């Protein structure tokens, strides 16, 4: 099967093209929110983010690049079976595997945070020296949640246990259980609360290695991003999360996802709009220009 066989086509992100074969970067949605522990509905995020993206300009004043300089494909969302967690994770992983085999840069819009597990599994097989960079309010290191091992609250724990990845950097964390904190101290590079200052140091440490970036929108304070499933006060501003993307622009990014946007609780579409701008800047920061070699 081809990657496009897994898609449910719909209107794409701003300035995306329909030329899959000729695109180095592929943006797609993973509309799965079956493990949400508080507010469900993040499966609607990819469509909401695409729709609001057209409010933005194509040009980034900070990066001095334009989406028209890129050639990236957005064919819509993966067609996932409702309520079937394991089958959905399997299909997401197959999609990532196909993209990586073809030399694409995958950029995924969730969905709850569990969708990161199959993305990292596939990327780590292709890049065994890869590091995982998690920008998040929550540690997501529970061994299980209400008896379930595979949930958005346990995704990073499952990644560590199931993939064998050694270097996981957790930044911006401001919510964790005592057990999660102890596990983090022994198994991850853990940076609670502050994230921009340590991110500068982390960037230098991982500069020459493949990097998967997973960004949970609840890293941002609910004042700036109210539309999320498990809001946590005390987070960063919208400007600070964009600054993080700029700090990471020269890394060897091999995978990126943005998760946990919840349109139903998104007053004035502020969270979806912020997510769209983050994705625009990530596309410009991590993708190759149109016509260049590489990804």
Write the layout of secondary structure elements.
Layout: E1 7-8, E2 25-30, H1 45-53, E3 59-60, E4 65-66, E5 72-78, H2 85-101, E6 105-110, H3 116-126, E7 131-135, H4 155-163, E8 168-173, H5 178-187, E9 189-192, H6 196-206, E10 210-216, H7 238-247, E11 252-259, H8 270-286
Parallel strand pairs: 2-5, 2-6, 6-11, 7-8, 7-10, 8-9, 10-11
Antiparallel strand pairs: 1-5, 3-4
Helix pairs in contact: 1-8, 2-3, 3-4, 6-7, 7-8
Give an overview in words.
- This protein is an alpha/beta fold and 295 residues long.
- It has a single domain, classed as Arginase, Chain A.
- The chain has helices at 45-53, 85-101, 116-126, 155-163, 178-187, 196-206, 238-247, 270-286; strands at residues 7-8, 25-30, 59-60, 65-66, 72-78, 105-110, 131-135, 168-173, 189-192, 210-216, 252-259.
- Helix 6 (196-206) runs parallel beside helix 7 and helix 7 (238-247) packs parallel to helix 8 (270-286).
- The chain starts with 6 loop residues before the first strand and ends in a 9-residue tail after the last helix.
- 53% of the residues are buried.
- Mean pLDDT is 91; it is low at 291-295.
């Amino acid at each position: 099967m081809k990657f496009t066989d897994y898609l449910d086509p719909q209107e794409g992100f701003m300035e995306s093209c329909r030329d899959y074969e000729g695109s180095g970067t592929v943006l797609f949605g993973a509309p799965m929110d079956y493990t949400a522990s508080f507010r469900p509905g993040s499966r609607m995020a990819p469509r909401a983010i695409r729709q609001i993206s057209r409010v933005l300009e194509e040009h980034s004043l900070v990066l001095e690049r334009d989406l028209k300089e890129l050639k990236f494909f957005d064919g819509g969302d993966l067609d996932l079976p409702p309520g079937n967690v394991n089958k959905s994770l399997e299909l997401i992983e197959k999609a990532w595997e196909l993209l990586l085999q073809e030399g694409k840069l995958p950029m995924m819009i969730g969905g709850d945070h569990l969708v990161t597990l199959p993305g990292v599994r596939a990327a780590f097989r292709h890049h065994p020296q890869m590091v995982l960079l998690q920008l998040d309010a929550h540690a997501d290191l529970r061994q299980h949640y209400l008896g379930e091992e595979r949930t958005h609250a346990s995704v990073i724990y499952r990644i560590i246990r199931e993939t064998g990845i050694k270097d996981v950097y957790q930044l911006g964390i401001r919510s964790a259980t005592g057990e999660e904190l102890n596990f983090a101290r022994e198994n991850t590079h853990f940076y609670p609360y502050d994230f921009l200052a340590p991110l500068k140091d982390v960037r230098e440490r991982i500069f020459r290695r493949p990097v998967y970036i997973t960004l949970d929108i609840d890293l941002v304070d609910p004042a700036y991003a109210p539309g999320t499933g498990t809001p946590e006060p005390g987070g960063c501003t919208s400007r600070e999360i964009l600054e993080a993307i700029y700090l990471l622009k020269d890394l060897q990014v091999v995978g990126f996802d943005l998760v946990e946007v919840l349109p139903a609780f998104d007053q004035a579409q502020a969270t979806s709009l912020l997510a769209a701008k983050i994705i625009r800047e990530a596309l410009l920061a991590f993708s190759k220009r149109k016509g260049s070699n590489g990804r």
